[in-house]
Amino acid sequence: MNLEALRASDAAHHLHPFSDNKALGEKGTRILTRGEGVYVWDQDGNRLLDAFAGLWCVNIGYGRRELGEAARRQMDELAYYNSFFGCTTEPAVKLSAKLAELAPGDLDTVFFTNSGSEANDTILRLVRHFWAVQGRPEKFHFIGRHNGYHGSTVAGASLGGMAGMHKQGGLPIPGIHHINQPYWFGEGGEMSPEEFGLARARELEAKILELGPERVAAFIAEPLQGAAGVFIPPSTYWPEINRICRQYDVLLVADEVICGFGRTGQWFGSQTFGIEPDLMPIAKGLTSGYIPLGGVLMNQRVAGVLREQGGELAHGYTYSGHPVCCAVALENLRILQEERIVERCREDTGPYLAQRWTQLAEHPLVGEARICGMVGALELVPNKPSRTFFEDRGRVGGLCRDIALSNGLILRATWDAMLLSPPLVISRGEIDELIEKTWRTLDQTAAALRQG
Ligand code: PMP
């Protein structure tokens, strides 16, 4: 099919996620055809530096043939078997053990899902079951955060705090509450980041006391808020959250779907921020996006209760522990470990990227350039140095994203924040190219705004 035929067919038969499908059908989708390292190519042959790693997920970069070979080997050997009815497969066994080795603290047990959303749906059920089998069924309520993102399934979207998502489908479901986010740039006012971090953490304590600690099952949050706009919490935030969760015996869920597998320069965001989670949903970087796979990692307390007192677990997916997905994940983790990709991010390319990225704050359009490991954002603002937003929020971000594309650079826009999350294998030379293209994009965006 030629390009026009492909686009017409797509418009007629394919409903795209998180898209205005009418507008997209009229504009025509971009069709990606190939990837290598940090680059992807589109149907017109344009080479694009993917500074967003697909959707925060292609940690080892595109085009690693070993993953395809691992899938091929496993498909030839045993393409599928389930992990129900007392069965399992060798890749699922080996991956569970590998994850237990990599995970922080005593998180040493995993339940496999296909995605991050399913991991969070699983958490809602496992955590309520955990309390119920200990004779505490009233410990049922979850607390999440406004603008948190935990997926698109019913529980995932309910735990998340995206108002636009709640509007579609009658969410959130009962028993889920939200507190404010630690977004200092947008909401910190006159407080220092440290004061603000503490204040926002203490909203959790207030909410727990309002609901009654005996009714609160868990608090869920991303180590840094990704989809909302890469909000990196002040240093005071997580230590206080740890304290509050321990004090009121509320389970702490760190959603590691973005942060996991090296994104912040440690294997998990929980290590970067000193979080002491009881459970961690994982996905994305687990397979570098080469094949769908997610999971819930849990500590010995949670796993122990579910094993010893949980009875038959009435939960699971046809593809929980899919052998091909697990084989691909094992190969991905082998590459991350043997090539010391996480260490390189932490010690070399991450600090270099941070140094170059924060220089972008000198641009007249940039109100803040923040970064943690290999994930960051630029806040585009009308009036430096005040922390104010454009009136028509989202327009300038969209414009900047489109200009970036015309410069061969993929950045994501959330409102007027430009988000960065490149493959972890990005080299210093590619970082220079990324920064040069971003600076040029900012100049062109500013010029377009001046022209109205
Ligand atoms: N949690 C977080 C923190 C995420 O960023 C995402 C996806 N962006 C999810 C959960 C949902 O994962 P998935 O899209 O694989 O269902």
UniProtKB/TrEMBL annotation:
Family assignment?
Answer: Belongs to the class-III pyridoxal-phosphate-dependent aminotransferase family.
Return the NCBIfam families for the record. Answer: PRK06105.1, PRK07480.1
Alphabetically ordered keywords of this record: Aminotransferase, Pyridoxal phosphate, Transferase
Signal peptide range equals none
- Which cofactor is essential here? pyridoxal 5'-phosphate
Q: Which InterPro entries match?
A: Aminotrans_3, Aminotrans_3_PPA_site, PyrdxlP-dep_Trfase, PyrdxlP-dep_Trfase_major, PyrdxlP-dep_Trfase_small
Mind telling me what this protein is named? Aspartate aminotransferase family protein
* Taxonomic lineage of the native organism: Bacteria, Pseudomonadati, Pseudomonadota, Gammaproteobacteria, Lysobacterales
Pfam families reported for this sequence: Aminotran_3
